[in-house]
Structure formats: structure tokens, C-alpha cells
Amino acid sequence: MSTPDRLIESTRELLWERGYVGTSPRAIQQRAGAGQGSMYHHFSGKPDLALAAIGRTAGEMRAGVEEILSGPGTAAERVSAYLRREREVLRGCPIGRLTQDPEVMADPMLRGPVEETFAWLRDRLAAVLAEGRERGETGAGLDPAATASAVVAVLQGGYVLARAAASPEPFHQAVDGLLALLSRS
Amino acid sequence: MSTPDRLIESTRELLWERGYVGTSPRAIQQRAGAGQGSMYHHFSGKPDLALAAIGRTAGEMRAGVEEILSGPGTAAERVSAYLRREREVLRGCPIGRLTQDPEVMADPMLRGPVEETFAWLRDRLAAVLAEGRERGETGAGLDPAATASAVVAVLQGGYVLARAAASPEPFHQAVDGLLALLSRS
DNA sequence: GTCTATACGCGGATAGAC
DNA sequence: GTCTATCCGCGTATAGAC
């Protein structure tokens, strides 16, 4: 991997683990095995690196979600597959966690990808749910947008519960609880 | 308000806005209008202050929730009232946000109240849901613990969506989506 | 109780040599 | 491209005077 790539990857990990405020250029360099001068040669500073890291993470996330949601199966099956997808629950969501970072939210450059990713995700899920409803598969009286937001919220909130409990269990409980409700509609 | 009280209050606000890692003793002192020496006279340091602040926030939160959940109405009405309760959506949950802070999670003293608060909340909601089920009011085939986790997760995740969108709308959408599902069960 | 002085390392970067 | 030197202010205290 090239030095810029290693720097971006190490920034991605640190942003995930410690957030933007908790991540220092020093720590990025050390984890990447790169020197001070090298880092500032390839990137203009911490915000620039963070932008590259967030963009890459957001892109991967979208691709992964799209693969499931555009895959085979009924709408309910695909939403269910998305909810039950394997996750590193205790690490939380690398994009969602940025939402808690005041410096990320204050910078339009950094905030943009976060906002877009969630807007896209909710829209995409709503489209799948609307499709299922039109086909008469499920959820006759449900508002696709509201249901989609609930689905995403259960995941994001599930991470919070899991970290609070230091256990993945509440995450899976929350998903099961939502899935039980969805399956009756 | 006494100086220690002002210090605790200012720590509470800063923890809410900026998290533990993003909150400095200096900032606490300035917001409280207290000097360096004064702060270290009353508290042993940042962790000590944070402990007092988190304890106070957790206590208030439990009291507020308990008032709604032990109030009048059917189980479904009380859960609904809890979900629809007025909230400063864009500020997020002052306890939930601590979950993202590696230094809070790494310190058992600070972590304790966070863990307990969510454990209590899920239990308390599950008890209300179980009560409703026994009375035949609602949710005949639902697992109270799973449903309770989903309820809490929707709130915590709703905050994430709202902050990502810089708008309370997705929070309320998620709550509506969950409530619609609950009302059919 | 509160203030001021002092300390030491880190955060975040720039400059210039190699 | 990468390294080392240097900078300045902040983070997080401790010490001791008032």
C-alpha cells in the first residue's frame, strides 16, 4: 500500500475508534508508519485527511448496502437481510459516530458526506419498502419513509445500546424486536 | 448556585456538547466562572468532575422517565407518551453520547452510570410492555425485552439521524414509524 | 476557598535540509 | 518524498501564597 493509502487507512481506523476530536496527526502517522513531513507532503492537514477517510468509508458503506438492497428476494427479505447483516457491533457505525463530533458537524466539508450517506440510506430503504407495498407483499398501510427511518434508527441506536452494555446482545434484541413488528405488518 | 454546583453544571453542558475527550478543565472553569485553583480545590480532576456530572444527568433522566412510565394510562399509552415526549432532538441524548467516548468507556467509574442507566431503562420499558401484554391490552405475541430494546434504539438512533440531517425531522419520522408498527400489534 | 506561578508533554503545523 | 528542527498554545495538573 502506498504511503497516502496507509495514512488514509489509519485515519479511518482512528476516526472510528476515537472520533475526530480524539484523533491526532501524530497518532495517524504512527499507525501508518509515516513521518511528520511525509504526512504533510501528501495532505494539507488533519481535515484533509479526515475528508479522504470519511469519503472512502462512506463509499464502501453505500456499496455494501446497495449490494444487499438490490439483491434477490422480496422487499421484506432484503430489509431483513440488511438488518441481520454481520456487523462489528461493538465498534459501532463509522459514519454514525461522526454525528457526535462537534468539529465534524461544524465543518461543511466533513459534514457533507455524513449527511448524504444517511439521506441516501433512508431513501434507498424507503424505495425498497414502497416497492414491496406496491407489489402487495407487505406493510399495506405503512409509510415507507417513516418505516425506513425506524429501520436505520434501530441500527444506529442498537450500537449505542450495545456499547453501553459492552455486549452485542441489546443490538440483536432491538433488531429482533423491530423485525417481529415488521413481520406482522 | 455554589461554586461546586456551577462547575458540575458546566461540566454537564460540555459533556453533552463536546463529549469527554472534547472537554477541557479550562473550558469547564471558564463556563462556570471559576478559577483553576477553585476547581482543583473542590474536585480532584477531570474524571472526578465528570463522574459528578454524569451521575446528576443520569439521575434526572431516570426520574423523568419514571414519571411517565409510572403515570396513568395503558401500557401502550405510556410507551407512546415516552416516545413522543418533548426533546431537544438536535442536542442528542446526554447519556447516549458518552457511549461513543473511548475514555469514558475505558474507565469503569465513568462507564458504570451509563451502563446502569440503559439497563434500567430497557428493563423498565420491558416491564411496562409485559404488563400491557398480561392485561391483554396489546402485543400478544411480542417479546417485551426485544420490543423495549427496539424502542430505546429508535430514540437513540433517531438522534443520530437528526444530527446527520441537521433537522429533527428524521427523529420524528423514526418514532412515527415505530409507533405505527406498534399500534398494529 | 481562591489566586497566581510553574511545569511538561501533546496538538497541529511550518521550514528547510537531504 | 521523507526527515529533523522548531514553534506556539493548550491540556492537565501541582505548589504555594493570600
UniProtKB/TrEMBL annotation, chains A, B:
GO molecular function, one term: DNA binding
Keywords: DNA-binding, Transcription, Transcription regulation
Domain HTH tetR-type: 1-61
Pfam families for this protein: TetR_C_13, TetR_N
Residue ranges flagged as DNA-binding region: 24-43
Cleaved signal peptide residues: none
PANTHER family hit by this protein: HTH-TYPE TRANSCRIPTIONAL REGULATOR LMRA, TRANSCRIPTIONAL REGULATORY PROTEIN
Record's protein name: TetR/AcrR family transcriptional regulator
